[in-house]
Design brief:
heterotrimer, A mainly alpha, B alpha+beta, C mainly alpha, A: mainly alpha, Cytochrome C Oxidase, Chain A, two-stranded antiparallel sheet, 19 helices, B: alpha+beta, Cytochrome Bc1 Complex, Chain D, domain 2, five-stranded mixed beta sheet
């Protein structure tokens, strides 16, 4: 296909035939390369064990760890083609002229290939993460069914522990963290006035690492001994002697962590080196600030969870003694190393949401963000302080008692920058023109629920209170108020807000509102009672509990099913609107940020010419204010859109 | 801001505050305290609650007022006034929260310090956690028990340890909680203030039997405590004392021992179970102690009863078997 | 990377992004990557700290009866340090157009890196203890093993640079393919000095 101006086709090489169908990059090639690489892993293990004279040579635990969980995924990745360009490049062979055939979505099949377009990758992330959201949510509904009445009805405790552990792992590593990455992937380069991310191929690799991790975690249910069942936190010594599923957990985390780190590197370089002319840091939208600080958190903190899982893996597979006290190991060392990542992780799971809320509230209040600079600085404040509070997860763990007081102080202090943000959002709305479209509803729902979650966090920041409330359902309540009432509500806000930009169609507003209210009500019914349960004596991660808690647990279970059902409204809306919703204009929300100044969906290369930024991104109410000057009209002559 | 708007917001705030305060006061959020430590925890809890109610009322007042007052009709395309900030306000909402959390930190630190003070002559108890049972040792008296017994009005200093994985010791009415960690010793101070029996709950996921890893703590007068210790010490070696010392009563009901725990099958029905297994009662009881996973009663799981009792000296094992067999109902 | 820009010029492709920083994107990317790798080492040093310092039953270092080959490791340190100099020489050479110097420097660096790795493996075989012997061994093999893995990655990068150098790539204007592996190699070297000092000397 050529346009009338006679330009070259972007369809890429002709569809492969014959032998090339299985040697061209794609799932067919991955289908034989993954088992081949498993074989290589198995061979390496056998070779080295024979060489070292260790028996048994066929140690299946190690073979699974090396072959199935390490080398086979590389075979898969190589098969689908993420490494093809780089391998040619580093071997010094001449590179093929760039025909952009692996960039951009022109047909639906493009979403299932290795694609270097950040917009395609963003959608791939979002669809994948929501698939894991469904699976993680179903796992929760299974164990909530067990918890409906006292006693064990449907499963044994080990299965229960596995469900609880997998629920959390999927929600954290396969939903919240990468969903934010996906939204940011789509939006940030557009907001910056950039044609793509700094490293588009690396971006593609980052995405494809994710389904590997998810499949690993889910496959653990099939392992002998069942799914990993030591909680998402995986503490030794319980994790040290657990069955094979725990090894799958150790390595699955590495793949998810690698995905996260590589994406963060990409964001940092993109934000620092590819901003449009005139876009100083103080003219960046707060979503960009939020992803900038989040990416710093990811790069610095994530290697610590990698380390913690390596140590447990080594203890399990190589019989090291990092956490074996009878041979000089220190059990609590794991918790320090693990939480040094996992506390910043909760900010990784929230800061992008803060960015989304800033975008939505400014636009739907028709007002500049109140205290923009302090909002940006508070993000940096949370980043820095966030590294100094990890041991508040360990107040009852038995660490050196003196450490608890400084950790308490820094923990309580983090309420200050967070409070600044809440107050600033409220002040942004003050005297605005409030429009309660679905994104705004979710943003407001977030503010109210995050205040509750933040307040329960203040309780937990106080060591004496935490000594009573730790490891109980009070913690479960706090977690879900900040992660669901916080992060998930902002993810929904972002999806609704950028849906027209990503798909070129409008979602159904009435269904959106129904989704919001169903979610908001059933969420509170599910999780608010847990505060009481925890304080009154119900511990967490238990398959059974004291009889007197039966009635409330039944209420919670039923509400949790309602919460699950409410997501059906969301999926129905998204799917039907994507397929045949009304066509969206470029800027349905009349926003000033750059992504709204191009078509919906954007042209494949985002801009015909890089825009010139001339002012701040939230200058609503200032007559004649402009954020940027676009080249010769937003809908430029040579744009391409996908069907 | 006009007086009318301030008045409206204050009204909403007061209503929200009153409702929240009622919820805070009328709902029994905390268990009835049974220790001095829990009293201090409650004090910090209520201090924090008052502050939280104020903050919540404030945010609710502003949010509800704005949602009603500044709502625009869908076809209103105008923008709001371009207010970029207000330095005074921003300083205020940075400084006040900082002051508030500092106050909470100070109040908490004082309570924490007092809650760690065991005083001059505490009772000393060693807590041994294992999958999935608790054992309490009184080194001063040379006594071991599956139940924790404490004197009222006097501090007890617990030293906790674990023989396998991390467990956690918690009594909700005492407020105090501490993990029991393999390889290190952790410490907890409890000063009971009222008599009664309270649950001891494991609060760190420790495997299959985590949810059932419970026992009891009984708070008695000092005199009864001394008597109990003496009785345990004297009875050491006899089957009945062994039954308690080894923690059997923590999980099994047995009328002769006065225990009614339901973690494991009731031993009052042991004759029937032995008959079903086709073994003489004594042999069945002995086998169940030595190989707990060999026969599992309906509704119970493998891997929960510790296998460590197989290490008992033979004469103690036989005394225990005799006690259980003799103590059965017919 | 040149081909990309040329292609964009003769048929429409992405507009050229604005460069909003004087720092080159790929160099920045490499430094950030090294930052995350340094953090990974940080977690291993934390494990060392817990085993040696915090552990209530901490013993003298190395604990009885383990001994560390401080001298051999010292020689290895010298080898690695020298390889950083040859790497620097290789980069300076291509910046000045000296292709022979670049090739020689790269080959020398690779050879010394390989020597380091082989020495390390021989040392493992003769050190007298195994991964399962005491947390001391866990920390020793963990830290040195992690470092060795990074040397392996560095050698791979150097290998790629060397192949390309011999195939005629790199000019005084475009030599990221030498500079970036160089930066990584210096990181590997500096990290070794920290590991060596911590495990063997302190």
């Amino acid at each position: 296909m050529t346009t009338d101006t006679g330009h070259v086709t972007h369809e890429g090489p002709a569809p492969a035939r014959g032998l090339r169908r299985v040697t061209a990059p794609g799932f067919l090639r991955a289908a034989w390369m993954a088992p081949l690489f498993f074989g290589i892993g198995l061979g390496l293990v056998v070779f080295f064990r024979r060489l070292a004279g260790w028996d048994p040579v066929f140690d299946w635990t190690i073979i699974v760890a090396v072959g199935a969980l390490t080398t086979a995924p590389f075979g898969f990745l190589g098969g689908i083609g993420v490494f093809d360009y780089w391998l040619r490049y580093v071997s010094g062979a001449p590179t093929r002229p760039e025909d952009h055939s692996s960039h951009g979505a022109r047909r639906w099949q493009d979403y299932f290939r290795v694609n270097t377009d950040h917009k395609v990758i963003g959608v791939q992330y979002l669809v994948t993460t929501f698939a894991f959201f469904i699976i993680g949510g179903l796992l929760a509904m299974f164990f909530r069914a067990e918890l409906a009445r006292p006693g064990l009805q449907y499963m044994d405790s080990q299965t229960y522990n596995g469900l609880v552990s997998a629920h959390a792992v999927l929600m954290i590593f396969l939903f919240i963290i990468p969903a934010f990455a996906g939204l940011a992937n789509f939006v940030v380069p557009l907001m910056l006035g950039a044609p793509d991310m700094a490293f588009p191929r690396l971006n593609a690799l980052s995405f494809w690492l994710l389904p590997i991790a998810g499949i690993m975690f889910i496959s653990s249910f099939l392992a002998p001994g069942g799914a990993f069942a030591a909680g998402w936190t995986g503490y030794p010594s319980l994790a040290s002697g657990a069955p094979l599923g725990q090894t799958i957990f150790n390595l699955g985390v590495q793949w998810a962590g690698a995905s996260s780190i590589l994406t963060a590197l990409n964001f940092l370089v993109t934000i620092i080196t590819m901003r449009a002319p005139g876009m100083t840091f103080w003219r960046m939208p707060l979503l960009v600030w939020a992803n900038f600080t989040t990416s710093l958190l990811v790069v610095i903190a994530t290697p610590f969870i990698a380390g913690s899982q390596f140590f447990v893996l080594f203890d399990r597979v190589l019989h090291t003694n990092f956490f074996n006290p009878s041979e000089g190991g220190y059990v609590l060392g794991y918790q320090h190393i693990f939480w040094f990542y996992s506390h910043p992780a909760v900010y990784i799971m929230m800061l992008p949401g803060f960015g989304i809320v800033s975008e939505v509230i400014a636009v739907f209040s028709r007002k500049p963000i109140f205290g923009y600079r302090l909002m940006a600085l508070s993000l940096m404040g949370i980043l820095v302080l966030g590294f100094s509070v990890w041991a508040h997860h360990m107040f009852v763990a038995g660490m050196a008692p003196w450490l608890r007081v400084p950790m308490m102080v820094s923990t309580l202090l983090i309420a200050v920058p967070t409070g600044i943000k809440i107050f600033s959002w409220l002040a942004t709305m003050w005297e605005g023109r409030l429009h309660f479209n679905t994104p705004m509803l979710f943003a407001l729902g977030f503010i109210s629920m995050f205040v509750l979650g933040g307040l329960s966090g203040i309780y937990l920041g106080s060591v004496p209170i935490d000594i009573h409330a730790s490891d109980t359902y009070f913690i479960v309540a706090h977690i879900h108020y900040v992660l669901f009432g916080g992060s998930v509500l902002t993810i929904f806000a972002g999806i609704y807000y950028w849906f027209p930009k990503m798909t070129g169609r409008m979602y159904n507003e009435r269904l959106g509102k129904v989704h919001f209210w169903l979610t908001f009500v059933s969420f509170n019914l599910t999780f608010f009672p847990m505060h009481w349960l925890g304080l009154r004596g119900m511990p967490r991660r238990v398959s059974d509990y004291a009889d007197r808690f039966g009635d409330l647990n039944l209420v919670i279970t039923i509400s949790s099913f309602a919460l699950g059902a409410s997501t059906v409204v969301f999926f129905y809306n998204i799917i039907t609107s994507w397929a045949r919703g009304p066509i969206a204009v470029s800027n349905p929300w009349r926003s000033m940020t750059l992504e709204w100044q191009v078509s919906s969906p954007p042209p494949i290369f985002n801009f015909d010419e890089i825009p010139q930024v001339v002012g701040g991104p939230y200058e609503y109410g200032v007559p004649g204010a402009r954020h940027a000057v676009m080249s010769g009209g937003a809908a430029g002559a040579l744009q391409e859109t996908h069907p | 801001m006009r007086r009318g708007s301030i008045l409206r917001m204050v009204t909403i705030g007061v209503v929200a505050g009153v409702v929240t305060a009622l919820v805070a006061v009328l709902v029994p959020w905390l268990p009835t305290s049974a220790s001095e430590e829990m009293d201090r925890i409650e004090a910090v809890f209520w201090f924090t609650t008052v502050i939280s109610i104020v903050i919540f009322a404030l945010v609710t007042a502003v949010l509800v007022y704005m949602v009603v007052k500044f709502r625009a009709s869908p076809d209103d395309e105008s923008d709001g006034p371009p207010i970029h900030g207000h330095t005074g306000l921003e300083i205020a909402w940075t400084a006040f929260p900082a002051a508030i959390v500092t106050a909470i930190a100070i109040v908490s630190a004082v309570a924490l310090s007092r809650n760690g003070d065991a005083g001059t002559n505490p009772v000393r108890v060693r807590v041994v956690a294992q999958q999935f049972a608790w054992k309490f040792e009184y080194p001063g008296a040379g006594v071991t028990s599956g139940r924790l017994v404490l004197p009222v009005g006097r501090s007890t200093e617990l030293e906790l340890g674990s023989v396998d994985v991390i467990h956690s010791f918690w009594v909700p009415e005492f407020g105090q909680k501490s993990d029991a960690v393999p390889g290190i010793k952790t410490r907890l101070v409890i000063t009971p203030t009222r008599l009664g029996t309270f649950p001891v709950i494991c609060t760190e996921l420790c495997g299959l039997g985590h949810a059932t890893m419970r026992t009891e703590v009984q708070v008695v007068q000092q005199k009864e405590f001394d008597a109990w210790l003496a009785e345990q010490k004297a009875g050491a070696g006899a089957g009945g004392a062994l039954f308690v010392a080894q923690g059997c009563g923590a999980c099994h009901a047995l009328a002769a021992a006065g225990t009614d725990a339901q973690v494991g099958p009731s031993l009052d029905g042991v004759a029937k179970a032995a008959a079903t297994a086709g073994l003489p009662v004594a042999e069945f009881v002995r086998e169940s102690i030595l190989e707990p996973d060999k026969v599992i009663a309906a509704g119970y799981s493998k891997g929960v009863m510790p296998g460590t009792f197989a290490g008992l000296p033979k004469d103690q094992l036989e005394a225990l078997v005799a006690f259980v067999v003799g103590g059965k109902g017919s | 990377m040149n081909a990309h820009v040329e292609a964009a010029e003769h048929h429409h492709g992405p507009p050229v992004a604005n460069q909003s920083s004087r720092v080159s994107a790929t160099v920045l990317g490499m430094f950030l990557f090294i930052a995350s790798e340094a953090m990974l080492f940080g977690s291993f040093f934390a494990a060392y700290f817990f085993v040696r310092v915090v552990n209530p039953s901490a013993e003298p270092w190395p604990p009885e009866p383990f001994h560390l080959p401080v001298f051999v490791a010292g020689v290895n340190t010298a080898i690695l340090l020298t390889s950083s100099f040859s790497m620097h020489w290789a980069l300076q050479s291509i910046k000045r157009g000296n292709r022979a110097g670049m090739k020689a420097g790269l080959v020398l660096t690779f050879a010394m890196g390989l020597a380091f790795l082989l020495t390390q493996m021989i040392e493992y075989a003769h050190v007298g203890f195994n991964t399962g012997d005491h947390a001391f061994a866990s920390v020793f093999f963990g830290l040195t093993g992690l470092h060795g893995a990074h040397v392996f990655v560095g050698l791979t990068l150097l290998g790629m640079a060397t192949v390309r150098a011999f195939r005629g790539h790199f000019t005084p204007e475009h030599h990221h393919g030498v500079e970036l592996p160089g930066i990584y190699w210096h990181f590997v070297d500096i990290m070794w000095i920290v590991v060596y000092a911590t495990i063997y000397l302190l």
